[in-house]
Fold this protein.
Amino acid sequence: MADYDYDLFVIGAGSGGVRAARLTALDGKKVAIAEEFRVGGTCVIRGCVPKKFMVMASEVSHALEIAQGYGWSFDNATFDWPTFLEAKDVEIARLSGLYAANLGKAGVELVHGRAVLKDAHTVEIVGKDRTITAEKILIATGGRPWKPEELPGIEHAITSEEAFHLPQLPKRILIAGGGYIAVEFAGIFAGLGVETTLIYRGPNILRGFDDDVRAHLAGEIEKRGIKVILGCQHKSIEKTATGLVNHLENGMKLETDVVMFATGRIPYVKDLGLEAAGVELNDEGAIKVDPYSKTTADNIWAIGDVTDRMNLTPVAIREAVAFHQTVYRDNPQHFDYEAVATAVFSQPPVGVVGLTEAEARRSCAKGVDVYVTRFRPMKYAFTGSDERVLMKLVVDAESQRVVGVHIVGPDSPEMIQLAAIAVKAGLTKPQWDATCAVHPTMAEELVTLKEKQNAANLAA
């Protein structure tokens, strides 16, 4: 057998890469991992974690409004952007340090630098005059924001990555996009007092989500002061002495201080040397893998967003575990992508698991039963607020299995995590109904829904 520097070399120290490296090293293998930026990857450094801190900071303004309805009064409550940024950066540095420390404790060598494949067993650390060989290689480089480079004036726009480090909070912002990142940042900036406009080329936000969720959330975020423009996109961006003028295809002109594009993310494969190693891409530009995350090169695997299968941090971690079990434990495993719960930290937030109504109608042979409720939660009804919650169950009419749960409202991400257990387990609507409610809560609606949505309800 050839003599290699390492048993496993991992490219990319995000959540998936770190998990795979640690598990393999703990099995006694010689492992190294390369990271060109900071340990922690998209989620910890420029994604889920800092974004959630921003969401929580921005929610305070709404909480203060609600609190006044309960008799509280606040004088001169203010928000200081630099103070928040400093605290956020300190916490991100702490978390990145923990990731690096855990790699060291497991015996993984951390290589700071950009790793490029030279052949199927060799990587070069760019600018470090170092070449490394490995028996097996795992690619976990994640994804990066995409924006339309051909758009005139696009150089004046930012992406979500720059949004985490704006030197000052703008007075006006336009966010292009209709996915979860765009919707989340719209809520963040609006909650922090920024005049916020969301523009999306499609007929409604959150493409791919249940239609009732999309329509409900669009109405609720407008109640939070976000201006939503649908069926339209940019024609150009013009920089002037007073700001950035957004020229839209419908003839509108909007001047803002910041323009942010949240129009999707693409696998980070540029200049990675994949061709030299025999690693092929699929038609969408992601690394082509089999169900066990193996690429077209016999000794190279790939996990996480770079494969563009299901771009969620917990999924990348599960893929890492399956890789380790398959390759180093002689226990072939692949992740089951069915009924994976997800959340959109919009304001109000969204939690979903399973099939949308449209998907269920296509896949359930004997049709579906749909249960929907919309109501003012107790917390808001007390203050006279018009904000409403949506809860929806999608049920296979023949088996009575609950195949989809969709929630828009406070604490929906927390609720959907537990609802996902029931959906994954294949529990039926009668079993949900047999579960005693916890009162008074919003979640009790999930086990007390009795009336099916019929054609008349749909028309209404």
About this structure: The two ends are 70 Å apart (CA to CA).
